[in-house]
Design goal:
The protein has helices spanning 105-109, 130-133, 139-148, 152-170, 186-197, 258-264, 310-320, 336-343, 355-371, 391-395, 399-409, 443-456, 471-482, 505-508, and strands at residues 2-5, 10-12, 49-53, 56-59, 73-79, 98-102, 117-122, 171-181, 208-216, 231-238, 288-290, 326-329, 347-352, 381-386, 388-390, 423-425, 428-432, 461-466, 492-497, 519-521, 529-534, 537-541, 554-560, 580-584, 589-599, 604-613. The radius of gyration is 27 Å and the shape is globular. The strands form 6 sheets. It has a 12-stranded mixed beta sheet. Strands 16-17-18-19 form a 4-stranded mixed beta sheet. A hairpin with a 2-residue loop joins strand 16 (423-425) and strand 17. It has 14 helices and 26 strands. The chain folds into 3 domains: 2-24 and 61-66 and 79-217 and 234-244 and 303-387, Vaccinia Virus protein VP39 (Rossmann fold, 3-Layer(aba) Sandwich), CATH 3.40.50; 397-517, Trna Endonuclease, Chain: A, domain 1 (3-Layer(aba) Sandwich), CATH 3.40.1350; 521-613, Immunoglobulins (Immunoglobulin-like). The protein is of the alpha/beta class.
C-alpha cells in the first residue's frame, strides 16, 4: 500500500497479511467440573467465530462482521519541524514522520505492520447512548456510532472486539494496552479482553490482564437517590508476561498538611505512605488513581466534554513505555495521547474517524512542538486520509502516482507489462485517465486500450477508470461490444467514473454499508469578513463560506490571530462551531490572520489574510 502525496512522490510501505495471532489457549481457566455436565461455554470472544450450520462452527477472526478491505493512504499534510533527517523510515513510519490518520480505525490498523507498537491507550465510545458519544458531528463520526448502536451490547462488543484483536496484533511482544471505559460496559469488556489477551493467570503473572485501574475524580452528577458515580475504569493488559513497567516513573512525591492527612488517613485515598510531619515516603503505585479533571481555565482545555487530562495519560505513558517507544491511540479525539507522547519524547500514531478531531489534534501537536522546540528534536508528522480523499490533491499527483492510487482504491494492482494497460483486478485489465478533473477519456484512449487487450490474448474484458468520458469514447466502447459473436477482435469495456457507485462495488460486495468508506471530497470555499468594533478589537465572520460537497455544511472553524507560516490556533479558538467570533489584539499594526474551516463531509481549507489593526 502506498502513501500518495500532492508532491507526486510515493512512499511504499509493506501491506501486512491477515492477523497472525490467535486467541490464547486457556483450557484450565474455562475447565468445568464433570458433575456440571455439558454447560455451554464460549472461550472465544464475540464475533471471533460464527455458527454456519448446526453444531458446525466456522472461525472467521471477526471478518464475517467486518470484512477486510484495503484502500491507499493519501497524505494531505506534512508538518515539518526541521529535524526530519534524524528519523529514519521504518515499516510503521515509512516517511520517518509520526502519523495522524483520518479514517475508520479498524481498516487503518489492518494496514499497519504487526508487532510495531509498544503501548496502546484507547478511550472508545462508552456504551452510554448514541447522542452522548457524538462530539464533533461530522459524517464519518455519525456513521461509526450508528454501527456501534446497531445491536445493543452484543453488537457493541463485536465492534470493539474486532478492533482489540487488531491492537493485539500491532503490539510488540513487550507491549501493553490500556482501555478506558465506564460502568456501562467495563465488566462485559473485561470478559472479552480476557478471551483475546488472556486472564493473567491465578497469580497475575501470565499474559493478559494486569490491573483494573480506578480513576477517581470529583466531578459528575450529584444525587441523593443512589451512590454517586465518581470514577472511570481503565483495563490494563499485556501481550506477553514480559512487558515494560516503570514503577519509579509513576511515584508521586507530594507533601500533605497535617489537616489533610487526618481527613485522608483512613479513607484509602492515599497512594503512598506519609508521615505526620507532612513529608512523604516513596511507595509503589496502586490501581486507584486520583488525577484531577481539567478545569475551565486550563491551557490544555479544548472544549469538548470527554477530553481526558494530560496528567492521566502522562502516568500511563511514563509507566508503560520508554523514550523513543511507539505510543498509539486509535480513538484519538482531541489528541491528548499524541500530545503527551510528543512532550515525553515518544514516537506516536493516532487515528480518528472525525476530520474535525484530526484537525484539532494536528493543531495541538504543532503547539506542543513549538513550546518544546529548544528541548528535543521533534520528528515531522503527517496527516493521512484513508477512504476520504481530497480531489484537488489527487489532481496534483504525477500521472503514474495517480494511476497507482486509482487502481489501489479500485481493489486492483499495478502489475502490467503492456503500455496501455495500467493494472489488473482479478485478471481484468485496467486503464486509468489523467489526474485533472477536467480531463476526459476519449475515443483514441478506448482504441489503444482495446488493442492492448486484444494483443494480450488473455481476456475479452477491460475496465476504464476516470473522472469523465466523452461521448465518442462511450460510442466506441459500444461498437466494440457489438462485435461479440460476430468478429474475433471484439472487446467488452466497462467505463467507470471515479465518483460513481460502480467504482466502490468491490467494497460494497463485501459489506453493503462499506459504500460510505470511499468518497472523493472538495475543500470548502472560505470567505472571511473582518469588522472593526473597537480599539484593537475585531469581529471575524465566515458565515458566507460554503461547503462544496453534497449535503455539506460547515462544522468547525479554527482561528490563528498571529499566523507565522504555520497554523497554530489561538488558545480558545480551536474547537468552535460558531461562524462569527470576536478578538482583541494586544497591539496595533499589520497582522497575519489564518482561518481553518472543516465541513461535515471531511473537507478542510485554510484561508490566510492580512489585517491592519488599529
Amino acid at each position: 500500500m502506498s502513501i500518495l502525496k500532492s508532491t507526486g512522490k510515493t512512499a511504499v510501505e509493506a501491506q501486512p497479511p491477515p492477523a497472525e495471532i490467535e486467541i490464547p489457549d486457556q483450557s484450565d481457566f474455562y475447565k468445568l467440573p464433570a458433575r456440571f455436565g455439558a454447560l455451554p461455554l464460549d472461550e472465544a470472544p464475540l464475533g471471533y467465530e460464527i455458527e454456519t450450520k448446526r453444531r458446525e462452527t466456522k472461525v472467521t477472526k471477526f471478518e464475517h462482521a467486518y470484512p477486510r478491505i484495503y484502500l491507499p493512504f493519501q497524505e494531505v499534510k506534512r508538518e515539518s519541524f526541521g529535524h526530519g533527517k534524524k528519523f529514519e523510515p521504518t515499516p510503521l513510519f515509512p516517511t520517518g514522520a509520526n502519523r495522524l490518520f483520518f479514517g475508520d480505525n479498524l481498516h487503518v490498523m489492518r494496514q499497519l505492520p504487526s508487532k510495531s507498537i509498544d503501548l496502546i491507550y484507547v478511550d472508545p465510545p462508552f456504551f452510554s447512548g448514541r447522542n452522548y458519544n457524538v462530539i464533533f458531528g461530522d459524517k464519518n463520526e455519525v456513521r461509526s456510532f450508528s454501527d456501534i448502536w446497531e445491536g445493543g451490547m452484543p453488537g457493541y462488543l463485536v465492534w470493539l472486539n474486532t478492533r482489540l484483536f487488531e491492537m493485539k496484533r500491532l503490539l510488540k511482544d513487550t507491549g501493553s494496552i490500556y482501555v478506558h471505559l465506564d460502568w456501562h460496559a467495563c465488566h462485559y469488556v473485561k470478559v472479552e479482553m480476557d478471551k483475546i489477551f488472556g486472564s493473567g493467570g491465578s497469580d497475575g503473572n501470565d499474559a493478559g490482564f494486569k490491573a483494573h485501574i480506578i480513576w477517581n475524580y470529583s466531578w459528575g452528577v450529584r444525587t441523593d437517590k443512589r451512590w454517586n458515580r465518581k470514577h472511570d475504569d481503565i483495563l490494563f493488559y499485556t501481550k506477553t508476561p514480559k512487558f515494560t513497567f516503570n514503577a519509579n516513573e509513576v511515584l508521586e512525591d507530594r507533601k500533605l498538611t497535617e489537616g489533610t492527612l487526618k481527613r485522608l488517613e483512613y479513607s484509602g485515598a492515599l497512594i503512598r505512605d506519609h508521615n505526620k510531619r507532612g513529608s512523604s515516603e516513596q511507595a509503589l503505585p496502586t490501581d486507584v488513581w486520583y488525577v484531577a479533571t481539567i478545569n475551565g481555565m486550563a491551557k490544555e482545555r479544548i472544549g469538548y466534554p470527554t477530553q481526558k487530562p494530560e496528567a492521566l495519560l502522562e502516568r500511563i505513558i511514563k509507566g508503560s513505555s520508554n523514550e523513543n517507544d511507539v505510543v498509539a491511540d486509535f480513538f484519538g479525539g482531541g489528541g491528548t495521547t499524541p500530545a503527551v507522547a510528543q512532550r515525553l519524547n515518544r514516537r506516536w500514531i493516532a487515528c480518528d474517524q472525525s476530520r474535525i478531531a484530526t484537525a484539532i489534534t494536528a493543531d495541538r501537536i504543532t503547539r506542543v512542538v513549538e513550546e518544546n522546540a529548544t528541548i528535543l528534536a521533534a520528528p515531522d508528522f503527517t496527516v493521512e486520509h484513508w477512504g476520504v480523499y481530497e480531489s484537488p490533491r489527487l489532481e496534483k499527483l504525477a500521472a503514474n502516482d495517480f494511476r497507482k492510487f486509482v487502481i489501489e482504491a479500485y481493489g486492483g494492482r499495478t502489475e502490467s507489462a503492456a503500455a496501455n494497460i495500467h493494472g489488473l483486478r482479478t485478471g481484468v485489465p485496467l486503464f486509468v485517465g489523467e489526474p485533472s478533473r477536467k480531463s476526459q477519456i476519449g475515443k483514441e484512449d478506448v482504441r489503444k486500450f482495446a488493442q492492448a487487450i486484444f494483443e494480450e490474448k488473455r481476456t475479452e474484458f477491460g475496465v476504464m477508470l476516470g473522472w469523465n468520458f466523452d461521448i465518442e469514447a462511450r460510442r466506441a466502447a459500444e461498437i466494440l461490444k457489438a462485435r461479440e459473436n460476430k468478429r474475433i477482435d471484439f472487446v467488452r469495456l466497462n467505463l467507470v467514473r471515479l465518483e460513481d457507485k460502480e467504482f466502490r462495488e468491490h467494497i460494497t460486495n463485501k459489506h453493503k454499508d462499506y459504500a460510505e468508506l470511499l468518497s472523493f471530497i472538495q475543500p470548502p470555499e472560505v470567505r472571511v469578513e473582518m469588522t472593526r468594533i473597537g480599539a484593537r478589537k475585531y469581529r471575524f465572520d465566515v458565515s458566507e463560506s460554503v461547503s462544496l460537497n453534497p449535503d455539506g455544511k460547515l462544522a468547525n472553524v479554527q482561528w490563528d490571530f498571529d499566523y507565522r507560516q504555520r497554523f497554530t490556533s489561538t488558545r480558545g479558538y480551536s474547537f468552535n462551531r460558531e461562524t462569527a467570533v470576536e478578538y482583541e489584539f494586544d497591539s496595533t499594526g499589520k497582522k497575519q490572520i489564518a482561518c481553518s474551516v472543516q465541513d461535515n463531509q471531511g473537507g478542510e481549507r485554510t484561508w490566510v489574510g492580512e489585517l491592519d489593526v488599529k
